[in-house]
């Protein structure tokens, strides 16, 4: 590295003249903020200046990114420069995008049998009217893709949802043509794709037919209690109950069985309990 010596200030007052002592070759050094920071030995400021210079974009790069669809704020944030610096170069490109979006609204959508007679703006305005949307609140924009073709976008808000539809725009005779690129764009171009929602009315229980309960919707009903009772087998003879007005007949006790010969009679459990002596046979 060769050492230079300072000769003096240039006649423009913005540069420093330096000279190589060996070859007597002179050099012109801009007296910018970086030189002043280096002369002061301010290393921190030198680092900040280096970052700012590296992050700055050329005007052509700024315009290319704006034309590709980025906003001024997005370019300024990613480049680390002020919005004012980007706006100076982005303004003509933003006008170009707005003009292209206007031209695309006059283009004709491509159908299966060829270009539509109506323009894109007319078809979209009719679809918005069917859906009850405010077409005046929708916004149009455009940008150029990597393939050099223009893409047109329509943005609108329905309720709490933000919606967007995209078309490919090809300028040409009679306004050019547009072709849908997503589902929203296809639906807006198809007038038969929308069905008006049915109105909801209150149901009158007195006029509406009863709905059969299902397993999930059946009301809780009292369950009959089951009484445990002996069930007669099919082979058993079950006598029908007597009428209530007829007295119930008392069955006579069966004759007591006699004991075998030469064997004592064993008294029954009733005789023992009542203290009755059994008769001997």
From TrEMBL:
Gene Ontology molecular function: DNA binding
Xref: InterPro entries: DUF3071, SepH-like
Top-level taxon: Bacteria
Keywords: DNA-binding
Pfam family, one: DUF3071
Acidic residues compositional bias, start-end: 233-251
Domain DUF3071: 1-169
Annotated spans, Disordered: 227-281
Protein name stated in the entry: DNA-binding protein
């Amino acid at each position: 590295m060769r050492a230079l010596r300072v000769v003096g200030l240039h006649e423009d007052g913005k540069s420093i003249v330096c000279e190589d002592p060996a070859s007597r070759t002179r050099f012109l050094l801009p007296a910018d903020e970086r030189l002043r920071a280096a002369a002061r030995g301010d290393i921190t400021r030198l680092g900040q200046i280096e970052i700012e210079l590296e992050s700055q974009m050329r005007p052509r790069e700024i315009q290319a990114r704006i034309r590709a669809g980025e906003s001024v704020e997005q370019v300024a944030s990613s480049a680390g420069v002020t919005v004012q610096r980007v706006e100076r170069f982005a303004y003509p490109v933003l006008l170009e995008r707005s003009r292209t979006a206007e031209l695309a609204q006059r283009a004709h959508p491509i159908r299966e049998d060829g270009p539509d007679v109506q323009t894109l703006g007319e078809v979209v305005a009719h679809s918005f009217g069917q859906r009850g949307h405010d077409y005046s609140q929708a916004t149009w924009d455009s940008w150029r893709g990597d393939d050099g073709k223009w893409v047109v976008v329509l943005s609108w808000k329905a309720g709490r949802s933000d919606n967007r539809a995209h078309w490919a725009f090809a300028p040409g005779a009679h306004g050019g043509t547009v072709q849908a690129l997503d589902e929203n764009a296809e639906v807006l171009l198809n007038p038969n794709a929308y069905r008006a929602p049915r109105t909801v009315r209150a149901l009158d229980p007195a006029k509406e037919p009863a709905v059969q309960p299902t397993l999930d919707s059946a009301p809780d009903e009292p369950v009959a209690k089951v009484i445990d009772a002996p069930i007669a087998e099919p082979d058993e003879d079950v006598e029908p109950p007597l009428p209530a007005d007829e007295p119930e007949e008392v069955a006579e006790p069966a004759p007591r069985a006699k004991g075998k010969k030469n064997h004592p009679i064993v008294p029954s459990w009733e005789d023992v309990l009542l203290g009755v002596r059994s008769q001997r046979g």
